Amino acid sequence: PLVVVATWALLGFVAGFNFVTYAALAPMFPPELGGRLNACLTLSWVLGAFLLQNAYGLVLDWFPATNGGYSTEGHRVAVVILIALVLLALGWYRVSSKLEANKRARATPAN
């Protein structure tokens, strides 16, 4: 079905974006801290994946099992929560980038 193909295509498109954070954060730290930065980013991704999977399971446990499996409604609620978290993160990114741009604009002397 088209929805499945579109979902996989979108995943393939955005899956590599997390590696861009290395390039985005590297200039913000001294070069000698590059290894620690990489380690912290990797650890945060592993911990994030661990926490999200556990949270997803907790949401599924709120709904009774059907036919020996997890409830479809439980999956729907968990996915809606994940989408809400992604939208919240995108909003946070948008607001913080605007604040950073405003701070840089104020710090730049007028010619």
Question: Main traits of this protein?
Answer:
75% helix, mainly alpha, 111 residues, elongated, single chain, 4 helices
Structure description:
This protein has 111 residues and is mainly α. Helix content is 75%, strand content 0%. It contains four helices and no strands. It has helices at residues 2-14, 20-25, 34-61, 72-107. The N and C termini lie far apart (58 Å). The mean pLDDT is 89.
Quote the distance from N terminus to C terminus.
58 Å
Structural class: mainly alpha
Work out the strand percent: under 5%
Order of helices and strands: HHHH
For the sheet with most strands, the description reads: none
Compose a concise summary of this entry.
This protein has 111 residues and is mostly helical. The protein is 75% helix and 0% strand.
